[in-house]
UniProtKB/TrEMBL annotation:
This is Methyltransferase family protein. One of its GO terms (biological process) is methylation. The lineage of its organism: Bacteria, Pseudomonadati, Pseudomonadota, Alphaproteobacteria, Rhodobacterales. It comes from Silicimonas algicola. Keywords: Methyltransferase, Transferase. The keyword Protein biosynthesis does not apply. SUPFAM superfamilies: S-adenosyl-L-methionine-dependent methyltransferases. The keyword Repressor does not apply. One of its GO terms (molecular function) is methyltransferase activity. Pfam families: Methyltransf_24. It comes from the Bacteria.
């Protein structure tokens, strides 16, 4: 079966409760995100996918927090992104849809359209070197002092040594980890959580 066919079948199975929404994060990483999202008032996630981590973050923000989920939801062969429908249904079923503002587009478009600073940002979008460089350049200065910047696939976990070949890992190792504006607050599996100190 083609990738488009598999995505469609997965969407149908999700709608009737057979499949779960998919995520590339571990339970330990999601627990870490939940901990660091608590009490934050202005948050963004780059890379919603099927909204598993979006829900984790939303459930740990105060009810008055402003939360943006950014994803281009690239359309497949039939001009539809089935993952977008899974994400929206997942948010609705979880009771957080009204608390997440979905921005359908690339992160650099979101940077132009969404003003202001954040006290929580989770980057889990395109892991290519060029994309993580752009995301970091556009958003790192918009993290408030004492705010959190969480980056997925930036450490190599024992369970997946292939992370070492990703642009997200390489750019974190060579550049982000040396940025004196931030300190590493926690590392869990492939997730690094940074706190802005200056």
């Amino acid at each position: 079966m083609s990738a488009a066919g598999q995505s469609f079948i997965h969407m149908l199975r999700f709608c009737i409760g057979i499949d779960r929404a998919e995520t590339q994060t571990t339970q330990a990483e999601r627990d870490c995100l939940a901990l660091h999202a608590r009490g934050k008032l202005r948050a963004m996630e780059i890379g919603v996918f099927e909204a598993v981590t979006t829900i984790v973050i939303a459930n740990n923000l105060p009810r008055n927090a402003e939360f943006f989920g950014v994803d281009p939801f690239f359309k497949g062969r039939f001009g539809v992104c089935w993952g977008k429908y899974i994400a929206k249904l997942n948010l609705w079923r979880s009771g957080v849809a009204s608390r997440v503002k979905i921005f359908e587009g690339l992160s650099w478009d979101a940077a132009k359209c969404i003003d202001g600073d954040f006290d929580f940002l989770f980057i889990d979008g395109d892991h290519s070197l060029d994309s993580i460089r752009k995301d970091y350049s556009l958003f790192s200065d918009r993290i408030q002092v004492n705010g959190i910047l969480a980056l997925h696939d930036t450490s190599v976990p024992d369970r997946d040594p292939s992370v070492a070949s990703l642009g997200s890992f390489i750019y974190f190792r060579d550049h982000i980890s040396k940025d004196e504006r931030f300190e590493i607050a926690e590392t869990v599996d492939s997730l690094n959580v940074l706190r802005r100190v200056s």
